[in-house]
# Entry
Amino acid sequence: MKCLMFEELGKLRATETTDPTYPVWIRVEATGICGTDLKSVYVGHKYFKPPTVLGHEFYGQICKAPDNFPLKKGTWVVAAPYYECGECPTCKAGKGDLCQNKNYVEAGSFAQYVGVPENYMDGLFVLPEKKDTADYDVYALTEPLACVINGTSRLETIPGYSKVLIVGGGPMGALFALYYASKGIEAAIVEPNDQRAEKLRSWGISTVKQDQVQKGEYDNIVIAVNIASLVEAYLPLVRQGGTLLVFSGLPKGEMLSVDAGAIHYSEVSVKGCSGFALSHFKEAFETIRGNEKRFRQMITHRFNFEHGQEAFDMLKAGKAFKILIGADINGREEA
Ligand SMILES: [Zn+2]
Ligand SMILES: [Zn+2]
# Structure
């Protein structure tokens, strides 16, 4: 089958790879490129070493399945790339995102097909019927939104009191803001890049400059950029009793130096989160289904595998927002 192969650091190529071996196949229509993919390709990632096929934010159609499989061929689905076992002590304690015994799809989705086990039904969500294939694109945002909802579950937002500040207006920061907008909660983004800030405002998201942020103005601050010094800079600004969420991944062993007074006297909590649990994925799916237009705006381009390198380079240069890639997409389209 066709795929976009991550060949070596900084290099991707449209080529062939082996077909899935799992019994259920999803024909991948499109996959979103995410921050982890970018990091893997340009910086390196300990779990995703080349040569390999990346990609996990995907949707498509069931195209092969045993006769007794509950979904018919042709059914459009979005698949969770993994989900928790549901049975271990961690899962029983309600912390499924930390389960060490997760179920996974077979391989990366920058490919024509992704295999899933026969008992993967909990991780498959049937999409509402659409006229145009491209109208399904918004569901490629389910997985990143699930990670964001994992983050929002760590924050307490009190109607009429809470204000959320998101530091970093990349796709994840934008998803936080759009999620809160869909719930009627006030949220603003700090984004230093003017073009990017303008784009965010065109979607109805408020933006502020870092030096405009007043101490105590926001009771929830989300760090959605992987820069440790931002954690240190924003912690003293959190309103008393509030929370600072370390959302973007910081390397293991990276040390932070934080204001102890903020934690003790101002009762500010520092929290973190990574990935999602199945409950977050379900909520992400429902949220998108109820707000397709709001979230759809974030997808700026659709490319096929031949344009894969270009797509990654564009994102790295900050020249696109969310790019979807798929074998059956026609060339290179502005979405
Ligand atoms: Zn992702
Ligand atoms: Zn578990």
Observations:
- Residues 84-85, 87-88, 90-91, 99, 101 surround zinc ion (ligand 2) (CB under 6 Å).
- The chain has ten helices and 18 strands.
